[in-house]
Amino acid sequence: MEDIVIIGGGICGCSLLYELSRYKTKVLLLEKENDIAIGSTKANTAIVHAGYDPEPNTKMAKYNVLGNALIQKMCVDLDVLFKRIGSLVVGFDETDRKTIEKLLEKGIANGVKGLRIIERDEMFEMEPNLSREALCALYAPSAGIISPWELAIAQAECAVKGGAKVQLNAEVKSIKKEKDYFILETSNGEIESKYVINAAGTSSDLVSQMIEDKFFEIHSKSGEYFLLDTTESGIVNTTVFPCPSALGKGILVSPTIHGNVIVGPDSKSVERGHNECTAAGLAGVKKGAMRLIPNVNVRASIRNFAGIRADAGLEDFIVGESDKVSGFFNIAAIKSPGLTSAPAIAKDIVSALKKKKDLKFEANPKFVSKRKVVRFKHLEAKEKETLIKKNPLYGTIICRCQTITEGEIVDALRRPLPPHSLDAVKRRCSSGMGRCQGGFCGPRVQALISRELQIKENDIPLDRADMYIITGKTKNEKEGSL
Question: Which CATH class is domain 1-83+143-218+312-372?
Fold first, then answer.
C-alpha cells in the first residue's frame, strides 16, 4: 500500500512529488500519458508572475507571491533555465490608468515587492518598440521567464532518484474509498493508498467525481500563440501585457527563456481535450500584439500552438482536503498563475498531510535536492574541448538549430523517466525547438531513442502514444520497388 498517490504529472503534481520526496513517505505519481508535463504545463506562456493580479486574501494571491519567491532558488538547485526580466502592464488612456492603479493597490496588499507606475519616458526607455499611443505602465521587477516543462521534469527526476515512484500510461479509471484507505483502478491495475491527491488538471473534476464529490466542474479555455524565431529577439526586453479584462491577462509579447519571442494568448471556451489553432484566433492574437508592439513580426513564427486552461468559473484555486471524503485532496482549477504558484501549493499540501497521524514524515536521507545538466552551446570553448575529450558524443551535433549534441540527448535518455517520444526528448534538451522544428534532427533523434532504449523506430511517437511517425516501409527491400 502507498502512503500517498498523486494523480497528474503536470507542474503541480511534480512539485508535490518533489516536496514529498524529502521524506520517507511512500509516494506514487500516476500520469495517464506517456510522459510528464504533457498537458497545460507544456503549452503556456512560461511566465513567473509577480502577483499583482489576484484578489487579495485569496489562495491565488498567497501562492503566487510565495511561489515567485521560491522558484528562483529551486531553478538554481535543479539547473532549470529561469530569469527575472520584469513585466509591464501597459495603459493607453485614463481608464487604463485607473485599472493600473488598482493593480498597484492589489499588488501592495499581496506583498509584491518593487511595484511602481512608470510614465512615458521611462516606459519607452525600457521598451523602445512599444506603441507611441501608450500612456503609462505598471512595472513589476520580480516577474520572470522560465522553462515550465523543464522544471516539472527536473522535480520528477530528482524525486525518483530519491525513492519516489512514477507510473506513466496509468490512467485512473475509478476510485473507491474503504474505511481508511482508497482503491484506485488504473489502466495498469489496482493500487491501494492511504491518501489521494487530485492534481489532474483539466480532468480534475472527473477525478473528483469518482469519489462522488461534484462541487466543481472544469470548463476548458483555449489560448492560441505565435512562437517567433530567435531573429526577433530584442523586440521586447520585458514581458509586456495590456490591461487585464474579464477574459484574462490579455495578449502579451514576451521574450522566452530560450531566446525566442512568444505572442498570445487569446481566450475562448472549448470542448474538453480540444486545443486547435484557428485562422481567426491567430488573427486576433496578431491584432492584440500589434496594439502593444506595432512592429512585431508574426511572419517570423516558427510554430503556432494552443494551450488549455482548467477554468472552474471560480475566482480562486481549489486547494485542500475534500469536505466530503477525508484523505482526498484537490489541487484543482489551477489556471494562471498556476505555474508560479505550484511550489507554494506543494508546501501547503505537505503541511496539511503532516497533520495526519497515520503518516510519518521522517527526513529522507536519499533526498536529491540538486541536479546538473550539460548545455553544450552555453559552454566556453575550453569547456567544450574538455567535454568532448571525455565523451566524444558531445562532439556530434544532432540539432543544428539549437546546437544540441548527441551527448546531451543520450544523457536525457539515461536519466530517470527517460523520454520515449521525439517531443519528450525536446522537453528535456531542446532538440527540435529551433527554426526547422525538428525537420532535420527528428529522424536522428528517433534513431537515438531506438538505440538507447531498444525500441523499434516505428514504435516511437512524435509525442503522445497515438501520434505515430512511421506507418510502414515505402519500398520492398528485396525488389527495390514501391
Answer: alpha beta
**Is 376-459 CATH 1.10.10.1100?**
yes
Catalytic residue among 49, 219, 378, 420: 49
Identity of the amino acid at 305: F
Q: Is the dihedral of CA 74, 79, 85, 90 positive or negative?
A: negative
Q: Which three cell numbers stand for residue 229?
A: 524565431
Note the pLDDT tens digit of each residue in 417-467.
999 999 999 999 999 999 999 999 999 999 999 999 999 999 999 999 989
For residue 310, count CB atoms less than 10 angstroms from its CB and return exposed for 0-12, middle for 13-18, buried for 19 or more. buried
* CB neighbour list of residue 256: distance below 8 Å, 6 or more residues apart: 46, 145, 227, 262
- Mean pLDDT (whole number) for 284-288: 97
What CA–CA distance (Å, rounded) separates 131 from 351?
47
Query: Do residues 318 and 41 make contact, with C-beta atoms less than 8 angstroms apart?
Result: no
458: how many CB neighbours lie within 10 A of its CB? 14
Cell 500510461, located at residue: 169
* Distance, CA of 217 to CA of 120 (rounded, Å): 43
Residue 49 is among the residues annotated as catalytic for this protein: yes
